[in-house]
Design goal:
Helix content: 55-70%
Radius of gyration: 19 Å
Largest sheet: none
GO molecular function: DNA binding
Protein name: Helix-turn-helix
Pfam families: HTH_3 (PF01381)
Structural class: mainly alpha
InterPro entries: Cro/C1-type_HTH, Lambda_DNA-bd_dom_sf
Shape: extended
CATH class: Mainly Alpha
Distance between the termini: 44 Å
């Protein structure tokens, strides 16, 4: 199987490593092994090891599920607030154009 190479900006890579660290800290606080977390998330232990390293090749849903299980606060812990925030975001999205249009731009002068 061919592995995907994912390149992240430094800011995104640092954020992912921070998120991974919070998940690992939560797992240890709960006293769970990586095998136990893997079973709860529904993935293999190799995937959980990749999560702990902050690998960008792991699906975002896997990170979110692991975070929720170990008690890392994603947005808020209150389901009603999450639903309200999602509804508000959907309303804002409906006010925006359905698609992005390229704006004519002046040529970039990058000849130094």
């Amino acid at each position: 199987m061919k592995t995907r190479h994912v390149t992240l900006s430094p800011k995104a890579a640092l954020s992912l490593r921070l998120f991974a660290g919070l998940i690992e800290e939560g797992r240890l606080r709960k006293g769970w092994t990586r095998d136990e977390l893997a079973e709860r998330v529904g993935v293999g232990v190799v995937t959980i090891r990749q999560v702990a390293k902050g690998s960008p090749r792991v699906a975002i849903g896997t990170y979110f599920e692991a975070a929720a299980l170990v008690g890392v606060s994603l947005f808020t812990d209150d389901p009603d607030t999450l639903k309200r925030e999602q509804a508000t975001q959907r309303e804002r999205l409906t006010l925006l154009p359905k698609r992005a249009r390229r704006q004519p731009q002046a040529p970039i002068d990058d000849d130094f």
